[in-house]
Amino acid sequence: MNGTKKGRILSGMRPTGRLHIGHLVGVLSNWRKLQDEYECYFEIADWHALTDAYDKTDQLRDNIFNITLDWLATGIDPEKSVLFVQSHVLQHAELHVLFSMLVSLSRLLRVPTFKEKIAELRVSELKHKTKKVLEQSAETAVNSFLEILEQYEQGNLDSASYKAVLKAKLKDAFMESLKDAFTGSEEDLPYGHLVNYGLLGYPILQAADILVYRADHVPIGADQLPHLELTREIARRFNSMYDRVFPIPEPVLTEFPKVPGTDGRKMSKSYGNTIYISDPPNEIEKKIRKAYTDPAKIRKNDPGHPEQCPIFAYHRIFNPDEVPQIEEDCKAGKLGCVACKLNLIKHMNEQLEPIREMRSKYEANPQLVTEILNEGEKKARAEAEATMIKVREAMKLW
Question: Helix H segments across the chain?
Fold first, then answer.
């Protein structure tokens, strides 16, 4: 590593499969620049991937292989950076355990991403519970009806009493069920039985990821600053309680462009609106031809609103030189959507072709990919163990 570089960086991704053009623009292009300026450690965070997918590990190895191919194909250089799989460096787990003693439960519950997850789970839980309550209410109502009907048929109730009792019984059954919907025991709370410790404790593991390499810089967006702050708190607490082992990592604030999916929503695999870095030319063409465009532009000569169109957003990425003219022609009704898409397909495929070629070369030589990761893991383990020696000495462990 070049000693003249600005400092050390740790960053990573969860292996969830092939990467799309949002990753290319938002993260990988930034990493490519950073590796020339900083000493970079890039981790494939497979343990983090388990926090919400611990029961779906059948694709994990393929995902790790594919994410490595995409990194290498887009210019993440193993000669400049350390590429490794998180779980192959066990010092991450050791430091995670030690850090977990320094963080209170209440502090973890205040982490923004955890609070957001809880909000999602509450909606999911409410839907689940509402369905359960309605089923129970229906069953109770049916049982009450049959019980009262039996009394009526036996002559124990006259017609007026039958209706009054039936109404009261059914009302009680529904009110009791609604009460159950809005109350419950501790085990019914979303963070009680729907959230595993891995999700709650992931910020501690994230802090261990960063600090086990004594990284002093972390590339993040401004909205992620609260997440980094917990790492900084842990480093300060450890240093003041034991000995100064860790730097206090500073953010390298990065503007991550938001790339829309082909349907206009955020690009996400879960929406099925992604364009992958590794998509072949015919797949690119197929996806772009079907992509959402300005709904107000029905005919070719209608004035368009390019700021609302994913195709225009893609032109900004893959065809920036023509963007001013495209914007002007679209707004003036001089450019049809079909022609605009065909132009984009040409430029997109031209820029992605070198990446696809490089990816194919690595894909045809999986042993080389494995060797690159193995070499990265050796470097990562050596640096992580050097940190842990300092940590064990500072904590006076046996």
Answer: 21-23, 29-37, 46-49, 60-73, 91-100, 105-109, 112-153, 159-182, 190-193, 197-200, 202-211, 225-241, 281-290, 310-318, 323-331, 337-363, 366-395
- List Cα–Cα distances, 318 to 24, 294, 324, 344, 398, in angstroms: 11, 19, 13, 8, 57
pLDDT in tens, 290-307: 999 988 888 888 899 999
Residues 24/365/49/216 CA torsion (nearest 10 deg): -60
| Start-to-end CA span in the chain (Å) | 33
Tokens of 56: 């779906």
Q: Is residue 68 a contact partner of residue 109, using CB atoms and an 8 Å limit?
A: no
Alpha-carbon span 75 to 236, nearest angstrom = 35
CA dihedral 305, 306, 309, 313 (to 10 degrees): -160
Which residues are 266's β-sheet partners?
260
Predicted local confidence at residue 115, as pLDDT? 74
12: tokens are: 């990573």
Which helix (H) or strand (E) segment holds residue 247: the answer is: none
